[in-house]
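Subject: sequence -> structure tokens, single chain

Hey, anyone have a minute? Need the predicted structure for the following. Not urgent.
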Amino acid sequence: MDPDAILDIIRDKLIPATVNYNHPRMMSYVSSASLTLPGLVEGLVASLKIFPYSWALTPGSTQIEVTVGRWLGAAVGFSDNAASYMTTGGTGANLMALLAARVARTDWDVRRDGVTGHAPLTAYASDQTHKCLDQSFAMMGLGTSALRKIETDAGFRVRVDLLEAAIAKDIAEGLQPFCIIGTAGTTNTGAVDDLEALADLAERYDLWFHVDGAYGALAALSPRVRPLFAGMDRADSLVVDPHKWLNVPYEAGCLLVKTWGALSETFSLVHEYMRNIDTDDAHDHWHHGWELTRGDRALKVWVALKQYGASGFRRMIDQHLDMSARLAAMVEQAEDLELLTRPSLSIFCFRYVPPDLHGDPSKGQYLDRLNEAIETQIQRSGDGLITGTDLAGKRCFRPCFVNYRLTQEGIDTVIAQLREIARGVDARMRGSDA
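Reply:
Had a minute. Here:
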């Protein structure tokens, strides 16, 4: 086919059949836009096939990734000399962290011998943790039941007392705890666990302390909410996703650890055809992860930080925190909306409740069906996007503000549209039920 005809198909068929993440009324999932210059750079390095394989072949690309890890570690207060590995996203980064934890906290050669014939391994996280952690335990052969899901408090933060009780119980029963997982910004509500208390607990029991900060850790750039992240600097590993709040193109997740040895001891495996002449500066990424061929995921992050600086992203994050707080306050005052969680960061939950149904517990199932129908109608409208979740048995809306193109006018438009759609859907559903 002619190249122009191929591009026409992409323009006419592919692009209209996808959500527009760059839309100023995009406020769903944890979805951000793509900054222009990092996007252009992404296309450039792909076409030139620049990738951080080995120091001998691509020292520039390799050094950029090392530098980006240090910058991210310093930005969130984890470590200004962090070792790092860029991944496809938080899912891969969390799996790598758990693999490193398993190697570091077992007293046998788990890479060689596996886990059979030894005390079963267990780890601990809140019941609000991301589903990718369950997937990690399944893929590691430990089984999802080895990840103990601990009940959360009224603010959806893990209850440290119950977590410690679970550790003590497992030890008494002959199991081997190896990792505590804290969450710095849950996907459902944006809650930040008490990371200081979790760090104390990990130290007391000599467990690896991992923090999943894929969504929220970058909010530590803001002095307003940085106290929420106290203790994150004590973690053995931390996940951040620049393709979320830094608004760089997919894929750009990042695992941060305190030492390069934590990664090389987990992943390094060198065959004859991979040996390079050692130099004082040599750094080969295939010592520190399981991939050989991998795209350059760090340069676009480097470009974004060079263009806007930490201060630019700090201002954007503060703006998103303001937007979230303002909308939550408006919801709380509205007679037809119900605030279910207050925003710790830039996520919160609310639902539509017709004024005459407020305080009527018998209408719970109807309200779930109503809010789900409203959500579907908003998505079909194509004028904005706000998605929902299930929280404490209630179907609700879950706005998330990480999109740099999002405007206050756009937010107001989506909420006004939601309420208008809701009134019509409610009238139709009641008429149908009657």
